Amino acid sequence: MGKIDDEKVINGEGYQLTTLDKAIGLARANSVWPLPFATSCCGIEFMATMGSAYDMSRFGMERLSFSPRQADLLIVAGTISKKLGPVLKQVYEQMAEPKWVLSVGACASSGGIFDTYSVLQGIDRIIPVDVYVPGCPPRPEQIIDGVMNIHKLVKKESIRRRYSAEYKDLMKEYKIELKEDNVK
Ligand code: SF4
User: Measured between alpha carbons, how far is residue 174 from residues 5, 44, 89 in Å?
Assistant: First the structure.
């Protein structure tokens, strides 16, 4: 379990005081359930990352979810064709709030070397991305760095963010319907 990095935390003998935001952020960051959306070579690097040598269980993340409803981190690793785009968007939409997106590698982030008519030039054209991992392919250490950056975001996120006007506007921009009962 991580610790709460905040000068506002008050420590004393047998107790620790902090805000609800910080406590929930810490719990969420240490129980992220990833959904791997791996389509090509970057997916192989992701598989290596999940191997025992890199030990994702130290983050409490060894349990991959292939059901969007039981996942809160979408990891997109590989080339996404325009034909596959609607499928990726549907998977994102099926995930409950709060949810985060990690774009792994050049293809997912920008289309990579495939500047062609059939390849999506970055998944952020259809869904919002929280962290990008550069590389073709990125090494497992880079993927872990991306995951740790996601953890930082999760820890800092206010529990009210998903109800904010900015978040609603962001979803509107992506033409994603925000179901109120999906915001938890
Ligand atoms: S970024 Fe490179 S390694 Fe990753 S899917 Fe694209 S071509 Fe393959």
Answer: 33, 29, 10
How would CATH label the architecture of 19-173? 3-Layer(aba) Sandwich (3.40)
> Is there an atom of ligand 1 within 6 Å of 105 CB?
yes
Is 159's pLDDT higher than 80?
yes
Q: Per-residue pLDDT tens for 148-158?
A: 999 999 999 99
The DSSP-derived string for the chain is ------TT-EEETTEEE--HHHHHHHHHHTS--EEEEE-SHHHHHHHHHTSTTT-GGGGT-----SSGGG-SEEEEES--BTTTHHHHHHHHHHSPSS-EEEEEHHHHHH-TT--STTB-S-GGGTS--SEEE-SSSPPHHHHHHHHHHHHHHHHH--TTGGGSHHHHHHHHHTT----GGG--
Domain ranges of the chain: 19-173
Residue 169 Cα to ligand 1 middle (Å): 32
pTM > 0.85: yes
162: exposed, middle or buried (Cβ count in 10 Å: 0-12, 13-18, 19+):
middle
Indicate the top mutation candidate among 37, 39, 40, 132 to test ligand 1's pocket, ranked by most ligand atoms within 8 A of CB: 40
